[in-house]
Design goal:
Blueprint lengths: L2 H8 L2 E6 L3 E8 L4 E10 L6 H16 L11 E5 L3 E2 L2 E2 L14 H9 L3 E5 H12 L8 E7 L3 E7 L2 E3 L8 E2 L2 E2 H5 L1 H6 L4 H19 L3 E5 L19 E3 L6 H12 L1
Parallel strand pairs: 1-4, 4-7, 8-13, 13-14
Antiparallel strand pairs: 1-2, 2-3, 5-6, 8-9, 9-10, 11-12
Helix pairs in contact: 2-3, 4-8
Bound molecules: beta-D-glucopyranose.
Beta-D-glucopyranose binds next to helix 4.
Length: 261
């Protein structure tokens, strides 16, 4: 086996998590699901057009590629996007510039980075990472990973396999698109106490529980590190756990997706 193949097989891969607020990247060991070294974090450009975001992604990839433990220059890059992704094309853009709609993000980033790229929905990536390395490891049946961030994302995992593009953040609850009231950003925007926010989450999770009867809920997104503030207040039949990979789940999941799928 050529030296380069050997290196690419054992080296960390780059994962990039594109969010409505920030673009994060890191080197990830695809077998252990662990981040190697620090994350790189850049605010999402505004307006978050495809060209502006692709430029930031390229800068983050260049920074990570320059690290001594980076993988070979032509190794694939895993990327998440906060919208529906079908065959590399964006089909929804709730929290990013609407010019993303119908953009072939896979082709755009492959061209911009000059290396193979795999793009997956951000919550689906978090779900893959949690199912393989985190709170959902070894759990059979339906596991729903709900990410509370700029919006509400969801991943539907069944027997460890992802059923892609579940959009449970857009369930209509009490006449509103759920994420407009119950996302982490909505909590801050509306100045809600944890108690007030817990009431919204109770309403949301009870409804999702009724619809899907999952074995386990996992709560991800930046707010998962404050889980003590709201999880104990929720009364559900279903066990509910914070994401173990916390805010790294997207980056890790992007790499799991490209390395194993
Ligand atoms: C989008 C989802 C995304 C979620 C979290 C929602 O507005 O529709 O695709 O996963 O936000 O970013």
């Amino acid at each position: 086996m050529a030296m380069q193949d050997e290196k690419s097989k054992h080296s960390p891969l780059i994962g990039i998590d594109i969010g409505g607020t920030g673009i994060k990247g890191g080197l990830v060991d695809p077998e252990k699901g662990e981040l190697i070294g620090d994350r790189v974090h850049v605010p999402t450009p505004q307006p978050s057009t495809p060209e502006a975001v692709a430029e930031v992604v390229a800068q983050v990839v260049a920074k990570l590629s320059a690290r001594p433990d980076a993988s070979v220059a032509d190794s694939p890059v895993g990327v998440t996007f906060p919208g529906i992704i079908r065959h590399g094309v964006v089909h929804s853009a709730a929290n990013v510039d609407k010019s993303w709609l119908k953009t072939d993000i896979d082709a755009l980033l492959t061209e911009r980075l000059g290396r193979r790229v795999g793009v997956i929905n951000d919550a689906d990536a978090a779900g893959l990472a949690e199912a393989r390395f985190g709170a959902g490891e070894g759990v059979s049946g339906t596991v729903l990973v709900i990410t509370l961030g700029t919006g509400i994302g969801s991943a539907f995992i069944f027997n460890g396999k992802l059923v892609p593009n579940a959009e449970l953040g857009h369930l209509e609850i009490d006449g509103f698109d759920a994420e407009t009231k119950a996302s982490a950003v909505a909590r801050e925007r509306d100045g809600l106490s944890w108690e007030e926010y817990s009431l919204l989450l109770q309403r949301y999770f009870s409804h999702v529980e009724f619809l899907f009867s999952p074995e386990l809920f996992i709560v991800g997104g930046g707010i998962s590190k404050r889980a003590d503030e709201y999880l104990p207040q929720l009364k559900l039949r279903t066990p509910i756990a914070p994401a173990e990979l916390m805010n790294d789940a997207g980056i890790v999941g992007a790499v799991v997706d490209i390395a194993h799928n």
